[in-house]
Amino acid sequence: MLPKTIQSKTHHIHSPFQFIQTLENCQKGQQLKGLQHLKKYLQEFGYLKYNVDHHSEVFNDLLESAIKTYQCSYGLNVTGILDSDTVNQMMKPRCGVPDYVNNGGTKPRHGHDDKSPFHSVAHYQFIPGTPRWSKSTLTYTFNSTAQVPNSLNIKSVFQSAFQKWAGVTRFSFKEVPKNSPADIVIGFHRLDHGDGNPFDGFEGVLAHAFPPSYGKCHFDGDEMWSRNPGPNELDLESVAMHELGHILGLGHEPTKPEAIMFPTFDYRRIKRDLNIDDIQGFQSIDTGVN
């Protein structure tokens, strides 16, 4: 049995989202094996009501509506059919935080009971009530259950990411020793790690984080994290920048692929600089312009 550590991948492993490819071109009225998994996917990421008809393999009106909402959210052609562009977008590795479209259809996640936990203004999203950190100096620490290679130098990576957010916000960030009380706890974990949002292995969901003031920030230990990513490797700082956005209260920006808060990630790509939408989104949240 392999030790509980971040392993190098010597061959390609099928993505947990691979099943979506087998459903390409399906549409309302069809009955297909695998549609229940598609419904679960759309529920997990905020597009379909919780526990709605998940065991049915029928492509019904609710599923068509959810796909249309997904297509609209990502700026795709709104057909209600699982066309190739929609399949390609859905299969991309992504953040585990739901997109929280404003249809009132998502299961409450991350400790919030709102039916629609994120409200949208312009391209960015935020939580109703705009929960904010009540202080401007936030402490952070590291606590992982998956071993992280020393060569990754995660303290340096996160220090750089924190500095970039500090440069456009009112916050400063200070590391404290492991197991000390901290506002933000960063960790690498595998599969079920105790927060109700288990990881799914290589590819699929890569990381997730919680909004103010429950500052947990988790990364999938089954991924190949890097500071200089090659094929099948993820740039840790790029993903860290995204997850820290959630920690500060930002949701996703599905129509802005260049934004840090875009929900999906590409292996090997480096995207470490905040986009104007990221900055305006946080400033709107922080000043209560909603």
Automatic annotation (TrEMBL):
Compartments where located: Cell membrane
GO cellular component terms listed in the entry, alphabetical order: extracellular matrix; plasma membrane; side of membrane
Needed co-factor(s): Ca(2+); Zn(2+)
Binding site for Zn(2+) 1: 193, 195, 208, 218
SMART domains: ZnMc (SM00235)
Keywords of this entry: Calcium, Glycoprotein, GPI-anchor, Hydrolase, Lipoprotein, Membrane, Metal-binding, Metalloprotease, Protease, Zinc
Catalytic site: 243
Binding residue positions for Ca(2+) 2: 183
Binding of Zn(2+) 2, residues: 95, 242, 246, 252, 261
Chain ranges for the short sequence motif Cysteine switch as given in the UniProt record: 93-121
Binding site for Ca(2+) 1: 223
Domain of life according to the entry: Eukaryota
Xref: InterPro entries: M10A_MMP (IPR033739), MetalloPept_cat_dom_sf (IPR024079), Pept_M10_metallopeptidase (IPR001818), Pept_M10A (IPR021190), Peptidase_Metallo (IPR006026), Peptidoglycan-bd-like (IPR002477), PGBD-like_sf (IPR036365)
SUPFAM superfamilies hit by this protein: Metalloproteases ('zincins'), catalytic domain (SSF55486), PGBD-like (SSF47090)
Residues reported in the UniProt entry to bind Ca(2+) 3: 200-201, 220, 223
Membrane topology: Lipid-anchor; GPI-anchor
GO biological process terms held by the UniProt record: collagen catabolic process; extracellular matrix organization; proteolysis
Free-text comment on the cofactor: Can bind about 5 Ca(2+) ions per subunit.
GO molecular function, one term: metalloendopeptidase activity
Peptidase metallopeptidase domain residues: 129-288
Protein family according to the UniProt entry: Belongs to the peptidase M10A family. Matrix metalloproteinases (MMPs) subfamily.
PANTHER family noted in UniProt: MATRIX METALLOPROTEINASE, PEPTIDASE METALLOPEPTIDASE DOMAIN-CONTAINING PROTEIN
Protein name from the UniProt record: Peptidase metallopeptidase domain-containing protein
Protein's organism: Dipteronia dyeriana
